[in-house]
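Troubleshooting: if your tokenizer reports a length mismatch, compare your output against this known-good record of 218 residues.
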Amino acid sequence: MLRALLALVLLANVLFFAWAQGWLEPAWMAPRQAEREPGRIGAQVRPEAITVLPATAASAAVAASRTPAVACMEAGPFSDAEIAAVHSALEGAGLPAASWQREQVQPGAFWVVFAGRYADAAARKAREAELERNALPYEIASQPAELAGGLVLSRHASKDAAELALAALGDKHVADLRVVAVPPGPQQQWLRVPAADGQTQARLAALDRGFKPCIERP
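Known-good structure output:
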């Protein structure tokens, strides 16, 4: 009896060894190779194309992949007094004069939904609090001078559009809101780099002059 038991144990070990080596057929009896290192290596696709980078180099590569190779960048508006200083900054950054251009823009008239002006800061704060309670966004006007210190709720290309915006406030209408025409402002100066590569974009950012992707203006 003991000899038979030992023989069975020995046979079981032999069978397990053969199974582990994948010698047994059919294929469904073979061990799963996916969990073994040789199987993983054999499943690799073009391993020679993989390069392990240090953490800093990897971060730079990710940033470069997200930055357009070439982009139009612009900054402004600048006054006539400011534009000369920006010219000097661009030259100091090593950008040749042929790589950037100055664009002159004449702003047109527009209309705003407006509140104010107010006699003192306390009166304006009270009106700001009223707008906030009604969930109405606003900005404090700085120009033109006749509107400075008042509150602008929205800007519009036509008087009709401004009137519709005012009427749309409905039950959120706040006392002293009205439509005001804003005359054309002074000519604006913009600086544009039409084809800035990655290195040029980095230089423009370092200047801290507000360079951003170009937008189309009417």
